[in-house]
Structure prediction request, 304 residues.
Amino acid sequence: MERGSIKTAQLRTLVAIAEHGTLMAAADALCLSQPAVTKTIKDLEARLGVQLLVRGGAGVRMTRYGEALLKRARTVVAEIARAELELEEMKSSADQALTIGVSLLAAPIVVPNALRAFRSRLPDAKLNVYECLPTQIIDGLRDGTFDVCVAFVADSDVTAELRVVPLRQAAQSLAVRRGDPLEREVRLQGLADAHWLYNHTRESLPAFWRQLSGDGFPPLPRRVSVCTSQRLYAELARQPGVVSVWPDFLLDEQIQLGLMTRITTDAQAASLTLGLMLRKDLVLSMSAEYFVDCMYSAAGVNVT
Prediction:
């Protein structure tokens, strides 16, 4: 038996013969001469020490050794073809721009780790990342400005034409400035006349208030300011007489700094859903698919 490893070209030749039925047809498919195909198979048979093909007037058929090797050869050839395609896509990724929209509130969560992993795998890919408002996220997906978006999604957001993949839940709480007399109020009704500060869209406010107060909810507060800038939000929330809505991961920082106090009332704020958002009709590029995978990994989401 000759020494040496089985070559990819030999496996490709075996698969081509099985698919086309004759040496001549396999040679045409591989852009080789028939003698070259014959020699490749003879070398492979010599390497393995078994007969792989039986030649006849009607063509060729596999021996049991040939059938056993063919099963593995198909897998190897298919995997090599996929690897070659992926490498070609990686080489061309430098010419493809991936544009990602990230909501202001979602920017510090999961996204940085996902972007680091993406850059490690595709360092030459053109990448555009824009931080924007929730309404801009949805509009940007609709008109094609963004390929992929990451944002906190409210139940009232109109996302029928979008695919939203939940990544993580974030609990929310109500808070006031530390030392504010409102921190002693335990009834939602008692806070209705305060000045409220909300962190999503004004359109989603009625649904939020309904979830917060449950059945028979009181009218919406008369004074509600909407702010989606994290820095400005923190400044406005520290004004006296202001009740603000916070995701716990941001509120905990303010509490540790001694600036805010979480208040517990007879109502509980609904949690937020951090979602990966895509258009349902969009065919993802290779770079977009890989960013999605990076987001799943960073968020600890198992995709089967």
Observations:
- The domain at 96-169+273-299 is CATH 3.40.190.10 (D-Maltodextrin-Binding Protein; domain 2).
